[in-house]
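We store chain and fold; example below:
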Amino acid sequence: MYLAVIVNPRARRNRAAPDRAADLRRIVGPWGEVYETASLEDVRKTVKQLNPRTTHLVGDGGDGALHWLVNEIEQCISDPQRWPAFVPTNGGSVNAVARKAHVRGRPDAIIRTLAVAAEADRPPPEMLLDTLELDGETVEGAKFHRLCFGLAAGGVGNRFYDRYYDSPDHGRLAVARVIARSFGDYLTSKVAPGHTKTPNYASVLFTPTRARVVIDGEEVPTRTHRLLHAGAIDLHIGGPFRLFPKASKPGALHFQAGEVRPSRIVVQLPAALTNGTVHGDRVRDVNGREMIIEAEEEPLSPIIDGERFLGITRLVARAGPRIRVAEVSGR
């Protein structure tokens, strides 16, 4: 057992720790290596030069850090069976994948537990997690490819992240603030429209995305979408708030697309936040094998595992390879 710890200095918990890499080297000791990566190019170079002995690849950050590691590993090692086990450390703004994989504790405690396990050469148990494989095109005509766990291609889920990241802190309180502000702005626009400034949280959040969407060969009967999401695993963000519940079983992908009036979203909001589903006559909220999204009027700017990508004109979402994630409980 041998560790490679990739430190993201821009992760939320690391910004106030200028000696983060040095501190982790003391924790890891001779049982692994620690790399600090300040840019995507650094991540790419680091993954290419990983020690062949590496059995556990640790992302010292959140879902975004894990996303980049998985995708860079795919570029270097084509066979997923040869990938190391991944370990997220609850160190980012969004840590839903770590929660799904039963990774518990603070980053230092998680890495210390791994170092102790490496010293004894007793690897922790692992969980297999499904991924989404996204293939598409950009406005420049270039190919686009990512592996991920969750996709907010447009609609409410996509626009929510802009407001969420506006918050100085990230967690269940930030989620609750965005929801409360959007709900309040919407009610004000109906009760006292003259007192509502535009744009506001509600007007932004409920702006639909225009796209042609096909799920398993059947076109969704609308070209405007306030729901446009896909998930390979069920996720919880900010405590009780749940995403992609239909992906809770291995091998099941959860697709959501279609149009819902803002009033119906507001009415369904409490239930939607806890069970992850929204109902409507023009909504497809289903398990499926393939979802095709073709942008209309303007390119997509999808949120993929909490990271935003710009200028996408077409996306195809299918099942990707399963990855191994170590279940680590930091003490």
User: Anything to note?
Assistant: The first strand starts at residue 3 and ends at 7. The chain has a mean pLDDT of 84. The chain is about 30% helix and 30% strand.
